[in-house]
Amino acid sequence: MKVSMIGTGYVGLVSGTCFAEIGHDVTCIDIDEKKIQMLKDGKSPIYEPGLNELLERNIKANRLQFQTHYDSVKTADAIFLGVGTPSDNTGRADLRYLKSAAEFVAKNLKNHSVVVIKSTVPVGTHKVIETIIRSHTPHEFFLVNNPEFLKEGSAVEDFMRPDRVIIGHNNAKAFQMMEELYAPLVRQGNPILSMSNLSAEMSKYAANCFLATKISFINEMAKLCDLTGADITEVRKGISTDKRIGPHFLYPGPGYGGSCFPKDVKALIHTANDVGLNLKIINATEEVNEEQKHYMFTKIKTHFSKDPNFSFEGKIFTFWGVAFKANTDDVRETSAITLAKELLSRGAKIQIYDPEASHNFLRLMNDEHALKEGISIIVNKYDALNNSHGLITMTEWREFTSPDFSEIKNRLREPVIFDGRNLYDTQKVLSFGFHYYAIGKFIPMSHS
Ligand code: NAD
């Protein structure tokens, strides 16, 4: 099948490349010329495990092309809209990229093609997009919603082995075409779900908001553990072995970030407000998360405030990890931003080490927060500890999980670890003579 993928971000690039891998003839289109040039040169503009190999293979096999123009739409059977839908300044989903892409698509559309909204869009958006396309083409077309559920960090794997594929449509022929497109990915019996466009749009937000709620829930439990002496690691095991609860998305941390949960939670709150409903649980999910993003700083401040003469001015702190999660270079809405701002605004400096995301983080701090002074990128995780007053783990990269604690202690000025991801065994860390702080873990020292 001939596929055009509009937008080559985390979703568009992975989806387009995977569709090529299963035999479709794919052209990925983006207005970002630099990105497209990189891709034409066979280089991925993003870090995603397994993506480079797939890119290379499918470009070589001539199944995957990259363009800045929309010519391929003229012959495409299915055109996917995978552009960004970020928050606007009110928190609503900003549909301007989607609307603009829809207009370009409409002007190149052939008769009876399927236009697929893959971006996450508020319930009802397909009607807006349909109207835009209809006003720019005389041709018949089918509009489908096919929300994407891949996770950054395991995007290729998730796309290739989806739990389910959701197809929102109002036309049997369009559904059949989508079934054919996805057929190689559902051989294990994972379902393709047929539903209305409205339900498909809604399903994506319901899924993300539920997952965000699980994270806020466990973060609140962790805080309560901190105040009572229970240990969230034990509590987590205690509840996640209950099949009704399950183990996923129940890891406490410094607050969720990324390009999806924060914006989707906000957007759903707005959607509900617009129809007169106050989503109490989802509002609380967001409120808890906003607080959680400051929790690491509270712990750092409490530790150092034991010395009444302590000042953050000129002190250096080390961040291991700045990506919003492991295995990605994405730093959008990462909780490392909040912590960095808290420290920098008090005159501290930070040394960051992240295997993939350091440069994106520095760029984001500079572009969006006008803050760059005081942040240094260090290319070796142990060198990042030199002259530092404390190690702070912000991302659960595997390479941080079994470090050489003697080396850490030798490099730090003060033997203190603030573990934002609960990576370490408490007894082991304490046996090296560190002060140790985590999220909801029982630490004998802090209770003595
Ligand atoms: P992104 O910001 O990484 O990429 C969007 C791309 O679209 C950019 O490269 C941009 O240049 C391009 N673009 C914008 N306007 C265009 C136009 N008119 N024509 C062609 N290209 C254009 O976004 P993303 O993270 O891939 O997210 C895309 C959508 O998928 C969003 O709605 C998001 O909510 C949803 N989603 C994202 C994830 C994720 O993990 N990132 C997962 C599931 C769903």
How does this model look, in words?
The chain has 448 residues and is α/β, with parallel strands linked by helices. It is 41% helix and 13% strand. It contains 17 helices and 14 strands. The chain has helices at 10-21, 33-40, 51-60, 96-106, 125-134, 155-160, 172-182, 197-228, 232-240, 261-274, 280-292, 295-304, 335-344, 358-369, 405-411, 426-431, 444-447, and strands at residues 2-6, 25-29, 64-67, 78-81, 113-117, 141-145, 165-168, 192-195, 316-320, 349-353, 375-377, 391-393, 416-419, 435-437. The strands form 3 sheets. Strands 3-2-1-4-5-6 form a 6-stranded parallel beta sheet, sandwiched between helices. A 6-stranded parallel beta sheet has the order 11-10-9-12-13-14. α8 packs across α10 and α8 (197-228) packs across α11 (280-292). The chain is globular. The model has no long low-confidence stretch (mean pLDDT 97). The structure holds nicotinamide-adenine-dinucleotide (NAD). Nicotinamide-adenine-dinucleotide is lined by residues 6-12, 29-32, 35, 82-85, 97, 100-101, 104, 119-120, 148, 150, 152, 259-260.
